[in-house]
Design goal:
- The chain is mainly alpha-helical and about 675 residues long.
- Among the domains are: about 140 residues; about 80 residues, no CATH class; about 70 residues, Zinc/RING finger domain, C3HC4 (zinc finger) (Herpes Virus-1).
- The protein has a three-stranded antiparallel sheet with strand order 2-1-3.
- It is flat and about 135 Å long.
- It is an enzyme of class 2 (transferase).
């Protein structure tokens, strides 16, 4: 049953991982699907604790986990359909779509309600999180939002129209095409494939509704094609109106090299920027592409790992040189085409300085890169406006690239600059999206001591965002943080401890920290004279003690005397954390509670229950309740032992009397 329990928990985690991989929900159901997926992701810590627990479970409990998996698999199938299915179908059949969502939500709510949480070894924090998810499912049953009414009415009006659409229906077609993001040929092709797949899955019996949707799609295709053709005709007309002048000009103007043209607009680029796949586009064109909800590179169709746009200074310079050589007016600089975001925060001189620093970071020699990274480090530290301006200028991916340089000073400046930039909340996501974590971890392992300290501080800053906790832990940051906690300077230990504390709030990182050997280091810091790390060590132990492995290792480390002493003499925060650790230890082994009582726990505990922090009072109350229960058990055991002893004595006396009588008769 133990292996079955672990396999069942892992299978639930696998389903959530599959759900996490589903993205780009159709616009009409995006909010509904995102909420459902978010709630299911919050269940992962419970599944991980079940998988790692040593507590056995019975067949009934196993049955509830199997039932939950079936409900989650239904949710996964629903979410995949809402990501890959026909956009037109999801709007026109909105009642069926929302009814299916309600059905999925009810199944999930019922399955979660049947789980006997008291029989599972789940921490209080995780159980509270699961109860929150359960309450959200209950509330969601009564209110399921529907899609845009105007869009729904436009689609139905088109269905009731013949395939020959007159001018009166052009506005409706335009609204539908824009709202469903069917203005580009690739999007129309994808929608066509989705409808064909629905026909195929129905065994060829498409039904009247699917046929109507196919007719509407044809109308939209014709409208988009006609709209594009009209645009081309306008260009041709403008060209003809120029008469012979146009012909003469075409003979003089040289052919623009393909590398200077934007792959989207096919026009010469004025503000070329690089996307994560390495392709270059005109900034305004790629921004429109991204704003339309696309997540792939237009030219290669590869998935974009980041939406960061990095200025291509080299190409911009080459375009300017080519224009000058061919007596063509060079493209106007980007600042004259559109307001630079940095201008609202920086003077023109500062903006020019930042752009110069970007150039040196990207194309300078090592000495230029070293000095540029150092200047950015200082500028980013100075104020919030600089942090925004530097990030918008494209510094983040350039700094990330320099983390792998063999030059230790460039490494140090780059990771510290990223630390200072990460103070801005909007920059945190951009830094992780730019692929910074592996480079930061490498600096944490191999960099100079100052670079390692700042790498740890950067990880702490980034881990404030919950989803970054998962990414940072998965990319191997925890073991080198434990090494720094063990051997770093005082500042390094503080930075490592704060990062570890934040990361271990996520249940999946607790096991990683425990297996990296953090608990022996923490217990040593508790008793090491002058360590100055007691606050941090107790806070992390309070988190790790809720993990089965962590509880076992702390329990075997002879930590109870220190915990009792901190409850007696520690600061308010240390008293509550020490009590929290003791609560978890005593839940697994009452001998720890017996030991704590012998060490004089009762007096400090009563004081904590009356004068501690709110959390300290709760933990003290839990310990006092356990002590009371233990005392009752000891009384019952003693009474039972006394009764047994009396029974044994009476039996012995009776036996002796019988023996004496038998001897007298003889």
């Amino acid at each position: 049953m133990e292996e079955e329990k672990g396999a069942a928990a892992q299978s639930l985690i696998d389903v959530v991982n599959e759900i996490s991989a589903v993205s780009d929900y159709r616009i009409s159901v995006k909010k509904l699907c995102s909420n459902l997926a978010r709630r299911l992701k919050l269940l992962v810590p419970m599944f991980e604790e079940i998988r790692e627990s040593n507590e056995p479970i019975n067949e009934d409990t196993m049955g509830t986990l199997v039932s939950l998996k079936e409900a989650m698999s239904s949710a996964k199938d629903y979410l995949k359909f809402c990501s890959e299915g026909s956009k037109i179908y999801l709007v026109m059949e909105r009642e069926q779509v929302t009814s299916k969502l309600l059905e999925v939500s009810v199944k999930l709510e019922q399955s979660l309600s049947k789980i006997p949480y008291e029989d599972l070894d789940i921490s209080d924090e995780v159980r509270e999180q699961v109860e929150l998810v359960l309450s959200q499912f209950r509330r969601a049953k009564g209110r399921v939002d529907v899609s845009d009414d105007g869009l729904y009415e436009d689609l139905h009006s088109l269905c009731n129209k013949s395939s020959d659409v007159d001018d009166d229906y052009q506005p409706a077609l335009q609204r539908v095409a824009k709202k469903l993001q069917l203005m580009e040929i690739p999007d129309l092709a994808q929608e066509s494939v989705a409808l064909h797949e629905m026909v195929a899955s129905s065994g060829g019996d498409a039904g009247e509704n699917i046929e109507e949707m196919a007719m509407v799609l044809k109308m939209i295709k014709d409208f988009v094609q006609t709209d594009n053709d009209n645009g081309e005709d306008q260009k041709v007309g403008d060209s003809r109106s120029n008469g012979q002048t146009s012909t003469a000009a075409s003979q003089k103007i040289p052919v623009i090299p393909d590398d200077f043209r934007c792959p989207i607009s096919l026009e010469m680029m004025r503000d070329p920027v690089i996307v994560s796949t390495g392709q270059t586009y005109e900034r305004t064109c790629i921004e429109k592409w991204l704003e339309a909800g696309h997540s792939t590179c237009p030219k290669t169709q590869q998935a974009l790992t980041s939406t960061t746009l990095t200025p291509n200074y080299v190409l911009r310079s080459l375009i300017a040189q080519w224009c000058e050589a061919n007596d063509i007016e060079p493209p106007k600089p980007p600042s004259s085409l559109r307001p630079r975001k940095v201008s609202s925060f920086s003077s023109p001189a500062e903006a020019n300085k930042i752009e110069d620093l970007m150039w040196r970071l990207a194309y300078g020699n090592p000495e230029d890169q070293r000095s540029a990274a150092g200047e950015i480090r200082l500028l980013a530290k100075r104020n919030a406006d600089n942090r925004v301006a530097i990030a918008e200028a494209g510094a983040i991916p350039l700094l990330v690239g320099l983390l792998s340089t063999p030059d230790s000073r460039i490494q140090e400046h780059s990771v510290t600059a990223l630390l200072n930039l990460s103070i801005c909340e909007n920059n945190k996501g951009a830094i992780v999206s730019a692929g910074a974590i592996p480079g930061i971890v490498q600096v944490l392992k191999k960099g100079s001591m100052e670079a390692r300290e700042n790498a740890a501080a950067t990880l702490f800053s980034l881990s404030v965002i919950d989803e970054n906790k998962v990414t940072i832990g998965a990319l191997g940051a925890i073991p080198p943080l434990v090494v720094l906690l063990n051997e770093g300077t005082q500042r390094g230990k503080k930075d490592a401890a704060t990062a570890l504390f934040n990361l271990c709030i996520y249940q999946g990182n607790k096991g990683k920290a425990i297996r990296a050997g953090v608990i022996p280091t923490l217990t040593r810091l508790l008793t090491e004279p002058g360590s100055g790390m007691v606050d941090e060590a107790l806070a992390i132990l309070a988190i790790l003690s809720s993990h089965p492995e962590g509880k076992a290792i702390i329990g075997s480390s002879d930590a109870v005397p220190s915990l009792v002493e901190f409850i007696r003499t520690g600061s308010p925060r240390n008293r509550e954390n020490a009590a929290a650790v003791l609560v978890h230890l005593c839940s697994g082994d009452p001998q720890h509670l017996v030991e704590a009582q012998k060490l004089g726990l009762m007096g400090p505990l009563i004081d904590l229950a009356g004068n501690g922090t709110d959390r300290g009072k709760r933990k003290a109350a839990q310990l006092l309740e356990r002590i009371s229960r233990l005392a009752e058990q000891q009384k019952e055991t003693a009474a039972a032992a006394a009764a047994q002893a009396q029974t044994d004595e009476e039996s012995e006396l009776t036996h002796s009397a019988s023996t004496a009588e038998a001897a007298a008769d003889t």
